[in-house]
């Protein structure tokens, strides 16, 4: 999955509605989703489901001729956690620049002594 | 605890000692602008994470729990999830210092981050227990006073369930101290099957929770100080009323200081506006006078200017109803402006967590008027605090009137649901109103005027702790 396809997927109110429905109802048949999202045609709902699958936000399971859909919890979590990890890395990348400023600005003031402790 | 550990590594040019000592500072250190007054074990710290475009940064609130100069720093944080941040520093020959950063995120934290990123998280489980929602401020201006609410709720649910009567299951949501989000999250809790929502949020947020409760036919319980309101068949408000707090604090402070001139500062939203209205009646009735007023929005940034106004007003007494991070910022600005020498302050939302984060010197001598303090010297409370520490450890955020109110609300709710297992919100409210319960804050019972009767205690801040007035 990539962030762009996820944002693209989330940009649609219909797709957000589908995700919210799946969040509340667990695994659902395609028909049940279409019954819920009544303001667009059933073929449109299929297209939206395909986009959500492509973005890694939902999973499809076949049961005989039925298609069942559920949130891909891991997909969403991976993205969110990935954001956080990127922020961690960004924060460390800026350390040199920040420390050079901190050391310059605190050179006139005494820093308290530190002790080992736990 | 399941979950994941994320790591990041960087080599920086400066030596280990400098990197170590610069980790956190009063106005922001090198990791997520880490803020703390000094690098010492036990010191409260917060880190500001700029999580996603289009959303406000959020703070991780915790404590420094290990320092091993110049090699290791560990922070354990309570909100918005319970986790641990470890930093290891090692020398790199000729190049400086290698920093290895590891962040633990538990399952609840992963869910919270996922929602924060705007992605859906499935609602799971729910069979065989009454679901109780906790809406709390994990982020935003109010997070500081809600730090222990989730722990307190967890403890209460465990104790109700240990009783073996009617099991409860806790579902937690974050209002981010924003009424709009409070409404959205209250809806989510209702859709998740919660029969009741215990809210440790501002009155502005609680108003949205009440709307949802009315529409969905569930119960909303406000477990935080509040200004009260009209009786309702779907909501009930515990918590101190501002009139109770002001009546308890104002005359005592005026007697103790022989001062009469007050400056009243607060926010523009409902509860704080109610405080101002009441102050305008109660202070003159007590023989005082108001020489200045200020009302600012939640999240206001320029408290230096406010402190200057107070200094110029000549007031010797200050009544503040600022909350959370705002109260912290204001009190630190007041200290910097020298107001500790010239004024005495009664702060209506000064709980143990807020006190810690204002800082020791900065908070010395501040007055608080609450129904509960962690230091309350009763046997019931000592045992409660002991159970809390046993369950959550020495580094967990301190208990306060906010968290004790959540705890007591859930115990009361457990009892009411047992009495009225299929009851409507109205019948559960009647059961709550009939209850007389010994809680850690004392005997709690409902009076005729829609207020929970409780004793209001006065305390002053000394060395970052509350000393109760006798």
Can you describe what's shown?
The complex is a heterodimer of chains A (118) and B (470). The C terminus of chain A is likely disordered. By secondary structure, chain A is mostly helical. Helices cover 63% and strands 12% of the residues of chain A. Chain A is built from six helices and three strands, in the order ααβααββαα. The two termini of chain A are 42 Å apart. Chain B is α/β, with parallel strands linked by helices. Chain B contains 15 helices and 21 strands. In chain B, the strands form four sheets. Chain B has a seven-stranded mixed beta sheet with strand order 13-12-14-15-16-20-21, with helices on both faces. In chain B, β20 and β21 form a beta hairpin. In chain B, α3 runs parallel beside α14 and α8 crosses α9. The model of chain B has no long low-confidence stretch (mean pLDDT 93). At the A-B interface, α2, α5 and α6 of A face β1, α1, β3, β6 and α2 of B.
Ends of chain A: how far apart? 42 Å
Approximate strand percentage of chain B: 25-35%
* Termini gap of chain B: 43 Å
| Class by alpha and beta content of chain B | alpha/beta
**What low-confidence regions of chain A span 5 or more consecutive residues with pLDDT below 50?**
108-118
């Amino acid at each position: 999955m990539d962030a762009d396809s996820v944002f693209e997927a989330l940009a649609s109110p219909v797709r957000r509605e589908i995700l919210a429905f799946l969040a509340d109802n667990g695994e659902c048949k395609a028909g049940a989703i279409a019954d819920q999202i009544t303001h667009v045609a059933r073929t449109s709902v299929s297209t939206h489901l395909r986009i959500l699958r492509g973005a890694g936000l939902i999973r499809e399971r076949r049961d005989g001729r039925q298609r069942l859909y559920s949130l891909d919890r891991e997909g969403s979590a991976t993205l969110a956690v990935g954001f956080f990890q990127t922020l961690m890395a960004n924060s460390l990348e800026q350390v040199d620049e920040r420390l050079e400023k901190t050391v310059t600005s605190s050179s006139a003031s005494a820093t308290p002594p530190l002790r080992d402790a736990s | 605890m399941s979950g994941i550990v994320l790591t990041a590594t960087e080599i920086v040019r400066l030596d280990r000692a400098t990197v170590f000592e610069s980790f956190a500072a009063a106005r922001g250190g090198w990791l997520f602008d880490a803020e703390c007054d000094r690098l010492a074990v036990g010191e409260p710290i917060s880190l500001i994470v700029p999580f996603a475009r289009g959303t406000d940064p959020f703070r991780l609130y915790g404590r420094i729990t290990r320092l091993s100069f110049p090699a290791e720093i560990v922070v354990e944080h309570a909100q918005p999830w319970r986790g641990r941040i470890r930093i290891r520093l090692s020398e790199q020959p000729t190049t400086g210092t290698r920093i290895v950063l590891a962040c633990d995120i538990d399952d609840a934290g992963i869910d919270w981050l996922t929602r924060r990123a705007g992605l859906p998280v499935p609602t799971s489980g729910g069979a065989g227990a009454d679901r109780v929602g906790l809406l709390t401020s994990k982020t935003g201006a109010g997070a500081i006073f809600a730090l222990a609410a989730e722990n307190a709720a967890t403890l209460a649910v465990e104790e109700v369930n240990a009783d073996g009567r009617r099991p409860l299951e806790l579902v937690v949501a974050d209002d981010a101290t924003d009424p709009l989000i409070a409404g959205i999250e209250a809806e989510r809790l209702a859709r998740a099957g919660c029969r009741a929502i215990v809210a440790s949020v501002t009155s502005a947020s609680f108003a949205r929770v009440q709307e949802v409760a009315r529409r969905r036919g569930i119960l909303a319980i406000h477990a935080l100080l509040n200004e009260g309101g009209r009786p309702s068949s779907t909501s009930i408000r515990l918590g101190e009323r501002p009139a109770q707090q002001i009546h308890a604090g104002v005359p005592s402070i005026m007697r103790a200081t022989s001062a009469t001139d007050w400056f009243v500062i607060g926010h523009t939203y409902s509860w704080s506006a109610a405080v101002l209205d009441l102050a305008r009646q109660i202070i003159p009735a007590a023989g005082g006078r108001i020489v200045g007023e200020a009302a600012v929005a939640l999240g206001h940034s320029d408290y230096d200017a406010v402190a200057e106004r107070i200094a110029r007003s000549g007031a010797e007494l200050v009544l503040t109803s600022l909350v959370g991070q705002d109260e912290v910022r204001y009190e630190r600005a007041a200290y910097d402006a020298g107001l500790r020498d010239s004024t005495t302050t009664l702060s209506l939302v000064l709980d143990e967590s807020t006190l810690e984060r204002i800082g020791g010197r900065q908070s010395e001598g501040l007055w608080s008027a609450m129904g509960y303090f962690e230091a309350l010297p009763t046997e019931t409370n000592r045992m409660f605090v002991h159970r809390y520490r046993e369950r959550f450890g020495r580094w967990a955020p301190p208990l306060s009137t906010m968290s004790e109110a959540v705890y007591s609300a859930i115990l009361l709710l457990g009892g009411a649901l047992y009495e009225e297992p299929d009851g409507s919100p109205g019948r559960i409210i009647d059961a709550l109103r009939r209850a007389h319960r010994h809680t850690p804050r004392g005997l709690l019972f409902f009076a005729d005027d829609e207020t929970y009767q409780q004793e209001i205690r006065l305390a002053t801040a000394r060395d970052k702790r509350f000393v109760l007035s006798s």
